[in-house]
Amino acid sequence: SFSISTRRTWFDLLTTPAQKIIYKNLDEEESTGIAKYNLYDVNAKINHKFSNKSRLYFSTYFGEDKMIIKASDQHEDFELSLKWGNKIGTARWNYQIGPKLFSNSTLYYSTYSFNFLNSVKSDIETENEQIEIRSSNSEIVDYGAKIDFNYIPHPNHYIRSGVKISSFHFNPTTSFQELANGQNAATSNLEGGKNLSGIEINTYVENDMTLNDRMKLNAGIHLSNFSIQNSNYMSLQPRAALSIMLGKKSSLKLSASKMTQFLHLLTSPGLGLPSDVWVPSTDNVKPENSWQYGIG
């Protein structure tokens, strides 16, 4: 079986022609401009059943947002363009090894990119014409493989375990500038951050246990290793959650877990645009560690 769906905004298909009609009726000396925004995405899924014990799944997603603002008058042309989007692809094989053991093997690929362009031309069609163009691009690519096992040795135990290996490639930001004043032009490439690649390996095991009629316990441990540049970071992360039924309509839940994050998000305060940049832990920037506790 398969399914395909797609979406696209239609608002810009109405507003763009309307803006052109409005500005067409203005005098040549008045400012003109246009602003438009659109997005689209596509989802596709295919699955094939080889037998009652074996199934294969493919899925993909890709989408993009784009915003363009243009303005001009007799003396200046201005353009601002922003574009960002994701691409994801996954292949998964589900197999029943035995009556109590199941496996899921997965290959995946994902990428996120952000592009910015700002162009200003002033004193148009004169000897002193000035051109200023600034652009920047950032990208993160992630691909890897994992295998997960579900094992049910007893009705009171549900054991999950797995191994995952991921490869990360970071291009935090690359900027380009072009400046021209009359016949004099200059260009430059500004490297905002080095391209970095890292490998992350994870393994985990957890057990959903029914202790008695009123108590359930989920306990597990997660081991991660992240290698980048000359550094190697290893983290052991235990986790546990206990649920106690106090009565027919009430329960008490307790939890504790250790978390380690190897990726860091650099945000732009005050700028309501997707210009945030993901960067990895490096020789100089260590991973973030936390303990989380919950009761309710």
Question: What would you say this structure looks like, in words?
Answer:
This protein has 296 residues and is mainly beta. The protein is 5% helix and 74% strand. Strand 9 (196-210) and strand 10 form a beta hairpin. The chain is elongated. 4% of the residues are buried.
Low-confidence stretches are: none
Task: Return the average pLDDT rounded to an integer.
Answer: 85
Helix proportion range: under 10%
- Tally of individual helices: 1
- How many DSSP-defined strands? 15
The major sheet is characterized as:
13 strands, antiparallel
N-to-C span: 43 Å
Report the structural category. Answer: mainly beta
Beta strand %? over 45%
Shape: elongated
How are helices and strands ordered from N to C? Answer: EHEEEEEEEEEEEEEE
Radius of gyration: 27 Å
Short description:
With 296 residues, this protein is mainly beta. The chain is 5% helix and 74% strand. Strands 1, 2, 3, 4, 5, 6, 7, 8, 9, 10, 11, 12 and 15 form a 13-stranded antiparallel beta sheet that branches.
Helix and strand arrangement:
Blueprint: E1 2-8, H1 11-24, E2 32-51, E3 54-72, E4 76-98, E5 101-122, E6 130-154, E7 157-181, E8 184-191, E9 196-210, E10 215-228, E11 231-245, E12 251-261, E13 263-266, E14 277-280, E15 288-295
Antiparallel strand pairs: 1-2, 2-3, 3-4, 4-5, 5-6, 6-7, 7-8, 7-9, 9-10, 10-11, 11-12, 12-15, 13-14
Structural features:
single chain, 296 residues, two-stranded antiparallel ribbon, mainly beta, 1 helix
